[in-house]
Amino acid sequence: MGTVTEEPTSPTVRVRLDLAYDGTHFHGWAAQPGLRTVQGQIEAALETLMRSPTALTVAGRTDAGVHARHQVAHMDMLEDAWRALAPRNAPATNETVGAALVRRLNGMLARTYAQTMVERGLTVPRGTADVRIHAASVVSADFDARFAATGRHYIYRLADGTVDPTRRYDCLWVEGGLDLDAMNEAAGHLLGEHDFLAYCRPREGATTIRTLRELSLTRTSSGLVECRVEADAFCHSMVRSLVGALLMVGTGRRNAHWPRELLEAKSREHAAPIAPAHGLTLEAVDYPDESRWAERSAQSRRRRDDCCL
User: Catalytic positions, please?
Assistant: First the structure.
């Protein structure tokens, strides 16, 4: 009986994608059957391009209506498939292949977006889309868009003055003036490592302990109020819950100590109110040097069950 010789299999490469999106017409990041999502749109374009399913892992899954100025995801693909993306008569370098993938993905996403808007009776400028890939590059297999991240930066935008209709999709309008001094006082009581159960919609088996590094409000030269939020990681609806609690303080309905009281109660029965999604934008994701990707991923995977209050 003769031996069967298996065809050599192409090794895989890990590809990092840097992207941005307007979350207005998406049902969030995560793919859901029958719904238009950011992950679903990109994975569908990748499957058409690569002729095989491709799964994305993202730095942070955003809710329906939340935007991202800089989101990060990764995927694994066969090295042969990656190199095949190189333009004709061009060397298959990381730079040329990455640029080709970005160009082709954005073209497909723009066509899909235009078709979606036509179905809704709307027209959009040619070549535009509500999700855009900025960069694609091969990285070490130690890179994990989710677990290697050391921090996520969000801004929640508020308008308590003149209503600007051009900001209706990325800014929450609030009637009456906001007391920023009281809101910042309240925010200061929430910084550090805590169990944020009152500010999260917990997922089964997941911890609600997080380290909140920044929570501050400033008024920009245009009059908008920006609430900057940064942490090592966030649990479901945490940023919007933090903003929701601060809004109760800023509008005079609660005192500056109330958000801390919610935190210390660690209860879902008296949870913080959740601010609307559309005012929130993921601004940036932090990663350590490449030499620490594996270490950071291992650290992030360890569940935290205790913290210091």
Answer: 63
